[in-house]
Amino acid sequence: MPFDSKDRVAVITGGSRGIGRATALAAAARGFRIVVGYAANQAAADEVVATIEAKNGKAIAVKCDVAEEKDILALFEAADKFGALAALVNNAGIVGETARVDEMSAERIQRMMAVNVTGSILCAREAVKRMSTRHGGKGGVIVNLSSVAAKLGSPNTYVDYAASKGAIDSFTVGLGHEVAGEGIRVAAIRPGLIDTDIHGSGGDPDRAHRLAPSVPMKRVGTAEEIANAIVWLMSDEASYVTSAILDVSGGR
Ligand code: NAP
Predict the structure, then answer these.
(1) C-alpha 168: how far from its chain's center?
(2) Is 240 a catalytic residue?
(3) Which residue in 7, 56, 106, 220 has a CA-CA distance of 20 to 30 Å to 30?
(4) 115 lines ligand 1 (CB under 6 A)
């Protein structure tokens, strides 16, 4: 269903830094009102809002740990007050420290799945309730952040993370089919090695640059290169794209 993005709302989880931040700025430039979800770093979220407002865009920051259902409900209630929802970018995600499976605690694996998988599915549930024509909505788009790790499996690094992104791939295909007749498109991006803070938060800040020679294009990607693909999926230019997964990985 074609829609006018102008003055409609895009919720971006983890919109305060990295790929989410770049997506917030790119989507705001295309006329979306942006709800910047963040877990803890309010200063970073406020900076994204200020940057958007400085260019005459509209944005709000909302604290939301996607592992907490109550936070997700509050995020979408804030979005409702801001305007009619047109898009969700399920971007919030975490990695773990480098480890083999035989070294992983149950708590680590449960947190990985709670943030990367359950959080994305619950956010999608709230978005579908608002955007589906079945529920009186006007349609919209859901873009999920997967990873090439879903294909590679990330042995000796973080197989739990890779498995969480494999789940996102399956979820993208299935939900896309489920709501294809209700005005909602669902797609995923599988980024490769992207230059963001996520590698440092996994205890290996140089990971992306160290592995760059193994990428067919011999370099890491930028957050903006991922954001460009996401905002294309959010646009009517991608009007026949659903249940689709796009690698943006320099060939990795
Ligand atoms: P990042 O730089 O580490 O930024 C993470 C963002 O997510 C921050 O805005 C952070 O908020 C937020 N966040 C973290 N935990 C959260 C939680 N529990 N609830 C809500 N928000 C949370 O990450 P990134 O590299 O941009 O990654 C974004 C997505 O792309 C992730 O899903 C990641 O798996 C995927 N991806 C990244 C790469 C890569 O190489 N960078 C490759 C493949 C896939 P605060 O600012 O409040 O901490």
Answers:
(1) 10
(2) no
(3) 220
(4) yes
